[in-house]
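Weekly puzzle thread! Below is a chain. First person to post its structure in token form gets bragging rights.
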Amino acid sequence: MVATGSYRVPKVPEVSRRLRAGVLQIHSSDYRNPDQLPDGAVLVVGTGQSGAQIAEELHEAGRRVFLSVSRCARVPRRYRGKDALWWAVRGGLMERTVESLSSPAERFACHPHVSGREGGHDINLRQLARAGVVLLGRVESARDGKVQLVPDLKDNLTKADEFAENILKQLDQAVSQVGMPFPEDTNPRGIGPEVPDEADPILELDLQASGITSIVWATGYRSDFSWIRLPVLDSWGNPIQRRGVTAVPGLLFVGLEWMHTQKSGLLLGVGDDAAYVASAIDNRANAKSQGAEVSA
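Winning reply:
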């Protein structure tokens, strides 16, 4: 039984090797608090949940923060008086199966940014920008102590807003199906107001001139199943399985991202998947005890 999860190895872009040695570089997996970083401004790269939360914390600690915005979306934390996840579960949104995805790559899309701190709250990059965080496009390359950036900030902010709007529309539909009275939704709708550097984004960032002394690479993780020496991995190195069951007799998985449904990689859903896998093991054991040929 393989239950090692989907995210085992921190990913750090190759561009990190081309930055001067005087700047501290850490992956978000090694970040603990602002005091861990040297005095000075911080460049946070990536706006999944870790990147957005770290940028927010550093800003609140009084740091000058530059935030490289990725294609990760955002979601509202609260909706009509309840946590948005409550609605997602109640409305069946977490029951979507992997077969419903438009491509296999969607299984590994970054998780939308939001925060669970202080009871849970939204993280809206536009609000961070208005508070003083400098938003940038994605990091493209680096040379001579300068970072070149993709001019995609406006597009990434727009897509994050569109994703949140789509989630709210799905929740609106869920409310109509529940048939109970709930408070009006107060979440902002549509595309948010333009923020600094959105229309005319910064395309080159001089680390020394900007006072940047550290970089936090919030660039995610990759799986590592290379230790499994059996023909069960696809071209991306991920397990070929159906609801945790592989074609190799006796080899099963649990806890993978999108193993069966959207909640498979979460505490919310791993129990259902584990029960299915346990039943597969039980069926195989019963079949063996009866002398039958099995394939599970």
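Puzzle host: Confirmed. Bonus trivia for everyone else. The CA atoms of residues 48 and 111 lie 6 Å apart.
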